[in-house]
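Crash report, auto-generated. Payload:
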Amino acid sequence: MTPEYGIKLAVHLISTDFGDHAAKVCDCLLRKGTLALDDIVRTAKLSPQQVKTYLKVLIQHNCVQAFAMEHEGGCGEGPVVVTQYMLLFDNILHRMRFPKLLAIVSKELDKECEELFEAFLKHGWLTLQQILDRVPSNQNEGNCTVQDALRGSFTKLVNAHYVERCPAPDPFLVPPDEEKTPARKHDANSAKAVEELEIGEQCDIAKATPSKAKGFPVITDTCGDINGDKSIGNPPGVVIGKKRKQDALKLDTESGAASEKDVPWRANYKELVCHLRHKACIENVRARLDSGAAIVLSAMLEATQSAEKNVKEEISVLLSISTITEAVMQSEAGCSMTLERIRASLVQLGCHPNGVGADRTYNIDLKKIIELAQNDEVESMVLKRYGREAHRIFRLLSKSCCPLETTKISDTTFIEKKEAAKILYKLWKDECLHMEKIVLNESRQSQFMLWKVKKDTFWRHILDEMYHAALNLSIQIIELRRDKHVGALRERDVRLAILLQASLMKLDDALMLFHDF
Amino acid sequence: MPFSDRRVPMPNINGRSEPSFYALFISTLRKAPCLSPSPNAAFRSISEFKPPRPLPSSCLSNSDHCSHYFPQVILILGMSRSQGLSLKRKRPDTNAASQPLLDAERVLYDLIRSKEDMGIWTRDMKRETNLPDNVVTKSLKALQVKKLIKEVVNIQSKGRKHYMAVEFEPSKELTGGAWYVEGNLDTEYIKILKETCVKVLSKLKVATAEGISESINKTGLCATECSTQQIAEILRALVLDNEIMEVRSSGSGEFSSIPIGAVCYRCTNKGGLGGGGPKIGAMASIPCGVCPRITQCTPDGIISPKSCAYYAKWLDF
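Recovered output after restart:
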């Protein structure tokens, strides 16, 4: 379940870019989950035409995914196919970090690719034809050269996986298997999250093909679906694409060779998030250990990037020492590193060799690096908010695998027992700690308090506070921009804008640690 | 004068004798109301001692005086104690057995003595002797006046009145151990030990708790000999403060002198000598991250980012 301020931040971002009505549609999808058109109209209190328009805009900008699914009809009717809409919360948050994503493309590729990629971020879905049409038609001379250059930049972006084909406008999906999600029996929120993840994964697989490509999806009324499309009657278990098989064949026949230019493409956020995750791991290792370890890690991640299947890969792919050495020496920063130094860095990184002799392979525990980075962020906040002694107590409880009693905490941290109890109570009141009271017998002197950090609860709380802080920073940036329009630009305003934007990007790095990585 | 400077041998430091500092320190100590109660406090006395008159520039620094004079001073204080010499006026020798005690006093005194260095709480006394409250209170007062019992602080429950016979010293369970002085945490001593451990670890680069303890005791950087257990406790606190980190020896490279798998320590990039301060996280570097009112803040509420005083202060540069 998305935290409250996550919802508010997403609604704010949509409102800033697309207006309040689009924000209403976004809000109701975030709070109610996937909905059909009628349900959105009812909940958002907008007209059907308005809802259709804003859904189209949100789909165009990769914020909403439409899909068709079969449901049981009511009152003895047969199964019906209903088009539903699911909000892509992560993609909405990516709108806040466009400068960061552009910086990746700028660093890895060239300026032309960066400009083209910026168009994808601004406009959402784009076909190759639309990209080529961006060249002004009055430039007759060199038009072909410019178009070829654009094609070249586009190809580079595709080869680097920074852009991907868009999914089919509204693929027909199989309902998630109840047996595979035992969580749903106990926890409605996590069951919903699992269901949405499965739907998202199916949509990813249902990439658009040339025959399906007209650029934008057609949104139909559910009433129309119920009345007119019962005859579609796809048997249960029909998977992606098969619903439109006949239409596809017909189109292929009519248009001859399918026009690749009409296939919509979009920014591939997964690849970019993967990049950012690697970057965060490398920076954490550089700060925590040294630059040598960071160079070795960077080389290993670069060598295994193409083999990674998930963004949140826990362990990197296995590499032999010779492959690691080669990768390190090929990098600019690592060309002078000796084998001994590389081995020492692997030890520092906690990589233990698998196998023996020349067949030894190494991998990195990326999950642990991310966890350490998360701990650093939280501990820094506790230190600033509650002071040095509270920070010491918090670190003790974070590292401990079991709850600790007040006296034990006081002795280990060299804090007077009375003071320790005060700090523990304050941390508990602010939901940083979990407390258990043990009573041995009836007397007051035999009561013991046990304390521990409940990571999952506290981490969720921290994430919500981060969303809240990001929302506040965004509001401040908008206020500043509004003031700029009123009068002449002051040097102070420029400095403030830079400070606020930099703070938002730094906070976004922390946000990604807890949400995306 | 109980003793004079001339009777006590002048200590030498590398062949130089330093009469000025030494004489001044001893004369100041004479004027102190009582002898230092603990070696730690004595060590602090020397390190904090400021001579009442300027010393020649050829004199050594205070830290050198601490390292070299301290053992001699302790010897002198010990001699003073063992020879019955005291800077205080001698009190009349009170022999417990010879003083006449009332029945209730005798019962209570025997009970308190039987508890030796653990002492006993007043409520426990009342329960075990079945004496009325007012009798217990009166008897305890009398025994204290006759210098047969003393009140001690129980670190586990400071509010309770705990009594012990005068001939015993409170046990570790009552005092809290090496880290407590008169019922309070000896924060100054702990701070000195922490700084010493960090200094040693900065020189050794990587070391075990035993190695650090040995180094400290050998070089006499610390007034009293510290056990490995005590040093380990200090190191654990330094790990919690992120000044040092705990690692396991790999047996090679900088760990070559340490057995494989042994727990050892090294300074972090943040701590240690010359290290920069700890890295400030993203939330900690903006007002919202440390705001005590974040839960009441809403975009359009009374407390909001637009009206926030902390934001105004942060942006006002």
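Post-recovery validation: DSSP finds eleven helices and ten strands in chain B.
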